[in-house]
Amino acid sequence: MIRHTVVFRLHHAAGSEGEKAFFAAAAPLVDIPGVKNFHKFREVSPKNDFAYCFAMDFDTQETYDAYSNHPVHDAFVQQIWLRDVADFLEIDLVED
Amino acid sequence: MIRHTVVFRLHHAAGSEGEKAFFAAAAPLVDIPGVKNFHKFREVSPKNDFAYCFAMDFDTQETYDAYSNHPVHDAFVQQIWLRDVADFLEIDLVED
Predict the structure, then answer these.
(1) What is the pLDDT at residue B62?
(2) Would you call B44 and A93 a contact, using CB atoms and an 8 Å cutoff?
(3) Is the pLDDT of residue A96 over 80?
(4) Cα of A52 to nearest chain B Cα, Å
């Protein structure tokens, strides 16, 4: 199992219409084949500048790659993510 | 629920005695009251320089604070973490 995690912050303010539109646009990611246990979190540590987190599990590297290359993911990245995200960090975890 | 996550890398090489000793010294953290779902992960994304992750859940901010201030945690930080950890990032997540 691979836990794919991305922490990020937006150009939009918390509670703004832009923030709402971003998360509405992200909703279809959940239904891409292979995605399990999709969670949206708020990032609340004062020790970093990120504000949100998406986390999801993939059974295999192949399903992870298929997600990354899926047209729904690609459209989201190109049309929404690159425009709205001010900073991010991807973290991929595998259990020991 | 607060998911407390820390990604980090060590001064020790993978597979080294120093790495083994670090994780042996970290084992008692699991038994500090309030810690739930403790996981140790390897961090495998090529997009950052971290190598490991500890993740754990706390029911409340109070149990999280009690963990942070617990003598077992404090001794680990002072005697092991500060000596062995080359870089780290704390990420605290709450579900929306």
Answers:
(1) 97
(2) yes
(3) no
(4) 8
Report the residue of chain A nearest B91, measured CA to CA: A45
| Contact status, residue A41 vs residue B2, Cβ threshold 8 Å | no
- Output the CA torsion sign for B62, B39, B51, A52: negative
| Residue in chain B lying closest to A8 (CA) | B91
Any A CB within 8 A of B14 CB:
no
Check whether A23 has a pLDDT greater than 90: yes
Q: Are A26 and B96 in contact (CB under 8 A)?
A: no
User: In chain B, what are the domains?
Assistant: 2-86 (3.30.70.100)
pTM to 2 decimal places? 0.94
Residue A75: the pLDDT is 98
- A19 token code pair: 């923030």
Q: Å from B7 to nearest chain A CA?
A: 8
ipTM exceeding 0.95?
no
Which one of A41, A90, A93 has the shortest CB-CB distance to B53? A93
User: What is the per-residue pLDDT for B46?
Assistant: 94
Phi and psi torsions of A12, nearest 5°: -85, 150
A49 lies within 8 A of chain B by CB: no
The pLDDT value given to residue B96 = 77
**Nearest by CB to A39, which of B42, B90, B95?**
B95
